[in-house]
Amino acid sequence: MKLIRNSGNERVIDRLREWLGQGASVDLMSPTFSVHAFAEVRELIEKAEKCRLLLGNEAALADSLFGGPADIVSRGQLQGRWLARLAADWIKKRAEVRCAPSAPPQSLIVVQGAETRRALLGSCSFTSEGLGITPGGQLGLVQASDENDEAAAFADWFRANWEGLKADSAAKDKLVALLEEAGSQRAPSLLYFQILFQLFKDLGDELDEERIIKSATGIRNTIVWKKLFRFQRDGVVGAIDKLERICG
Q1: How many domains does the chain have?
Q2: Whether residue 7 is found in the same domain as residue 129
Q3: pTM of the predicted model, to two decimals?
Q4: HEC states along the chain?
């Protein structure tokens, strides 16, 4: 058993490149699934004969699909939809999927080769951070097992958890649907609506006429108010609000 820093030359991705060969099998337990992590291991994992994915619940998977703050460079390459479609195709053809009702507290990767078995346990989730591609948390810890006996114990632990969850084809279907949805085309108008939402979602009742225009003042009963168009009244409400909040 060896502790690896998951940075520099001691990364999870480096171990996978060393261990994953043609015809290997992979067991992966992770609370999350990122298409950017899939991009890094796609050529490697294509060599695997079979793969079992034990993942977190649907909400956690949806939140992690395009990574976190450290993946901003990868998202900037605008390959997310393409990668999501590739991941969906691979899962449909090559992977078994089961989802735990809550996120697994740690991640586990077991690689079974022709004559060897290797394992990684700890902060090695299926994300770019978990693979060591981008910087992760300083308190993360990954244990690497290069001994068959040690790795066999981890493989048994994975199998016990795998078999403890009822086989459910819906888990795979939901993950594939999530990826296909992420990889689908979007109407350009959705971007406009999203921008408007982000700009105005926190306004709340800042320009609520009923709150700003006090009925006791009688302003609504004046001739001037009644002659104003709707947009002019909005301007008056905004001006009164600024006068009251920030003295003009």
Answers
A1: 2
A2: yes
A3: 0.75
A4: CEEECCECCECHHHHHHHHCCCCCEEEEEECCECHHHHHHHHHHHCCCCEEEEEECCHHHHHHHCCCCHHHHHHHHCCCHHHHHHHHHHHHHHHEEEEECCCCCCCEEEEEECCCCEEEEEECCCECHHHHCCCCCCCCCCEEEECCHHHHHHHHHHHHHHHHHCCCCHHHHHHHHHHHHHHCCCCCHHHHHHHHHHHHHCCCCCCCCHHHHCCHHHCHHHCHHHHHCCHHHHHHHHHHHHHHHHHCC
pLDDT in tens, 161-216: 999 998 888 999 999 999 999 999 888 888 888 888 887 776 655 556 666 676 65
Domain range enclosing 90: 2-187
